Amino acid sequence: MDAAQQESTARARELQRSWYGEPLGALFRRLIDDLGLNQARLAAVLGLSAPMLSQLMSGQRAKIGNPAVVQRVQALQDLAGQVADGSVSAAEATDRMEEIKKSQGGSVLSNTGQTTASSGAPTVRRVVREIQSLLRCVAAAGDIIDAADTLAPTHPELAEFLRVYGAGRTADAVAHYEAHQS
Questions:
Q1: How confident is the model at residue 142, as a pLDDT?
Q2: What are the per-10-residue average pLDDT scores of the chain (182 residues)?
Q3: Which CA distances in Å does 7 have to 4, 10, 15, 76?
Q4: How many CB atoms lie within 10 A of CB 152?
Q5: CA 134 to CA 139: how far, in whole Å?
Q6: Which among 13, 2, 128, 120 is positioned nearest to 77, based on CA atoms?
Q7: Angle between helices 3-20 and 124-138 (to 10 degrees)
Q8: Using CA atoms, how far apart are residues 42 and 29, in angstroms rounded to an integer?
Q9: Which of 18, 24, 50, 87 could cysteine-pair with 141, CB 3.0–4.6 Å?
Q10: Are 166 and 149 in contact (CB under 8 A)?
């Protein structure tokens, strides 16, 4: 790989870190390990071609262009967490992956059964991830922070919202969401 390709790959991975919280290669490898998948199966569940998945993992491409695929990634991350904490068995995870594969990625705020918890209401984490996904599809984290800085003197609450949801970690956004519900 020549210097220009290395620079391009490093730039793509840095963009991935700002958009998705980490480079997609690391995120996808973790999903593969945690859910017992191979790259071809992960690509199929996400609705990506195997070459596209490979390009995203290697940093040849920076962005997932389809918001439904981004939502499937988030759903798989949630599922991997549930498998890790023992609340979902391997057999249940296989069934859930089929549901995720079939999902069109619609809003988690709508009344679609696939995106809700057993209570029928969207989980806080899902709502937060939806907000993060939407903001990060609109602008890069650096641009969101710049907008927040511009708003801060006159609209500090909106500036905080942009910083927390547009450029912050999911755990911080969940805490912010829970603190502001009443």
A1: 86
A2: 89 89 92 92 93 93 88 91 86 91 61 40 75 80 91 95 88 86 66
A3: 5, 5, 12, 30
A4: 15
A5: 9
A6: 128
A7: 140
A8: 10
A9: 18
A10: no
88 neighbors 79 (Cβ within 8 angstroms): yes
Q: pTM here?
A: 0.58
What are the CA-CA distances from residue 38 to residues 12, 32, 49, 57, 98 (Å)?
23, 6, 13, 13, 15
Long-range pairs of 112-119 with CB within 8 A, sequence gap ≥ 24: 115/75
Q: How many CB atoms sit inside 10 A of residue 12's CB?
A: 20
CA distance linking residue 61 with residue 77, whole number of Å: 21
Contact 37, 73 (CB under 8 A): no
Burial of 160 (0-12, 13-18, 19+ CB in 10 A): middle
Q: How far apart are alpha carbons 156 and 162 in whole angstroms?
A: 10
Q: How far apart are the C-alpha atoms of 146 and 152, rounded to whole Å?
A: 10
The DSSP symbol for 137 reads: H
